[in-house]
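Q: How would the structure tokens look for this protein?
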Amino acid sequence: MKLSSKARDAIAGYLFIMPNMIGFLLFLAFPVVASLFISAAEWNLITEPIFVGINNFIALFQDSYFWQCLRNTAYFSLFSVLLGIVTSLFLAVLLNNPRVGFSGFLKSAIFLPVIFSTVSVALIWQWILDTHIGMLNHLLGYIRLGPFPWLTDPHWSMPSVIIVGVWRQIGYNMVIFLAALQGVPQDLYEAADIDGARPLHKFWNVTWPMISPSTFFVLVTSIINSFQVFDITTVLTNGGPANSTNTIIMMVYQYAFQNFKMGYASAAAYMLFAIILVITAFQNIVSKRWVHT
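A: Here is the predicted structure in token form.
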């Protein structure tokens, strides 16, 4: 039976996407579904799983360690997202100005940390923030300040991790804002100039509404990424001191691969998924009031 050209094209298309679909099913879809069943069981990777229903979720709500990790994650997410968006937007507006010199070099320099692995970035900052041999305390010593326990004191550790996380991500957000700023029609600024609008008024009434879709994208992706922070906190502080930088993802890792409580870890992972889902849905609802379309 001879196939039509449309059927041949359809078969060719399916063959081309088949490797990607197989990878998606094996390494993403199947683990997600499997972890849902595991979250309702008690399993240590060796013995047979024992079905416990929602007991893992009940125990999770009664676990003070879970709530501490959730507070740490929310703390990191709130300040890293706010600081990251404000700083990256400021840099984008600044470097979008044609009167700023060396803008090409500055854009490349700010974006550079994005292309490095997070582990290498964290290792560099671990040396910079070291209490005894760190470069930052060494420089502060010249003006009679410090040394400060950036990574070894519960009061300093999370702010230090937040700064490193923002520094790591700021270039990516800046590029998105730059693309949005360059897409704003110039005639809107010309009309604002005719009306006698000041720079701040032009930003608030022209620039901000026009870049609001990009701002919404940066906000959503930043919150999702911040709730999944793992590598920076693991390398910099390993969750310490006194669990002050332990996050939900670190808790999942500890219970799954150190304590071998796969059911409990899966329940914690699904709790994180539910939290991110609720926050994202809320953002989608609220965005209709401030995102310009």
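The longest strand covers residues 41-42.

The mean pLDDT is 91.

Upvote if useful.
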